[in-house]
Specification:
Shape: elongated
Order of helices and strands: HHEEEEHEHHEE
Distance between the termini: 54 Å
Largest sheet: 4 strands, antiparallel
Helix content: 40-55%
Number of helices: 5
Radius of gyration: 19 Å
Strand content: 15-25%
Number of strands: 7
């Protein structure tokens, strides 16, 4: 109900990510929520992610490592995209599972299987595996020209 500019500015200054004035269309709410989700997840529309010799064109879903194309199933592709958005960050198992499946998995086998597929495909294309296992914690994508 507060629609004046000072009201909107006060809402944003107090920590709000967005401010929606009534009446509003549900389509606008949906678009704003999707935009907030993309910002939160680090996903940008039309982005080309680059980490060393690894390039991921998120529009065309094309992955190239050391000049060679990489073919991945959708879940492994999402794992790679998540890790490329934050190279060198150590991702916990729970963090990756929630990002990919929306919840933690009952066993670690599901994530491990998709991670194995991803690592094998990258190693075959680039001659090395740019993903490091961090014992007892999770995984990290090694940044640099020579992963």
């Amino acid at each position: 109900a507060r629609e004046t500019v000072p009201d909107r500015v006060a809402g944003l200054e107090s920590g709000a990510d967005d401010y929606l004035v009534k009446p509003f269309a549900l389509r606008e709410v949906e678009a704003r929520l999707l935009a907030l989700h993309k910002r939160r997840s680090g996903k940008l529309a039309g982005a080309e992610l680059r980490v060393g010799q690894l390039v991921f064109d998120t529009d065309r879903l094309k992955i190239v490592f050391a000049g060679q194309p990489v073919k991945l199933p959708p879940k492994s592709m999402r794992l790679l995209e998540r890790m490329m958005a934050r190279p060198s960050h150590v991702f916990t198992r729970a963090e990756l599972e929630i990002a990919i499946w929306g919840e933690e998995q009952e066993t670690s086998d599901t994530l491990r299987s998709h991670m194995h597929t991803l690592r094998r495909a990258l190693a075959q294309a680039g001659g090395s595996d740019p993903i490091e296992s961090v014992h007892g914690i999770g995984y990290r994508l090694i940044a640099g020209d020579a992963p």
